[in-house]
Design brief:
4-stranded antiparallel beta sheet, 3 helices, 92 residues, Alpha-Beta Plaits, alpha+beta
Length: 92
């Protein structure tokens, strides 16, 4: 079953930052310059974590992955563009 994750990163090197953005764009929607909402299976989440760990320098970079439950997502407040991607309908 897919679950919603919010993935935010602060990566200092352009090459690694671009690779991370390209990877995350395969799985979700960019909602800010360095923030993605991704609907992931447990296997996809683990794959992304492994790939991102290989891309970053843990001394200078950070990536945060937040699980967003149904109840929490329904309480979200969005200002501006607010249409969720179509695949979120299975989540809501």
């Amino acid at each position: 079953m897919k679950q919603l994750y919010l993935i935010a990163y602060d990566i200092s090197q352009n090459k690694a930052r671009n690779k991370a953005a390209d990877l995350l764009a395969q799985y979700g929607e960019r909602i800010n310059l360095s923030v993605f909402e991704c609907m992931l299976t447990p296997k996809q989440k683990d794959q992304i974590i492994n790939q991102l760990e290989e891309m970053i320098n843990p001394k200078t970079d950070s990536i945060r992955i937040y699980f967003i439950c149904n109840k929490c997502y329904s309480k979200s407040i969005v200002l501006g563009r607010s249409d969720p991607p179509e695949d979120y309908s299975i989540f809501i």
